[in-house]
Amino acid sequence: ILFTFVLVDFAWLFFRADSVKQAFDILHRIIFQFNFKEMTYYGSYLMGETKSGLLFVLAGIGIVFFIDLLHEKNISIEKIAMYKINIVIRWLLYVGITIFLLFSVIQNYGQAPSTFIYERF
Q: If phi over 0 gives left and psi between -120 and 50 gives alpha, with beta otherwise, what is residue 68?
């Protein structure tokens, strides 16, 4: 799995770069001039998003992991929601999740889509 991941990431360099020379320059910088502090300090981890956008992504990942954990332990979310949670709290959760999803979609509405990675291939 690790070998496949490294191989695919290496191949993606050539799709991202404008030329073969630039791809090898990027590869050289990754191997010989890698600077983790520079990568994280200037916000490259945001991938062009804002910090609130990054928090939304992390919250979504956390929710998916939490639901998967419950599923692995054979805990039914539907049974908990229907029989153990008060109806007022349950509807507050429904409304909160709906607002969260709507805000996530509306936040990026009208922005230009990123270019397709294989566009120049």
A: alpha
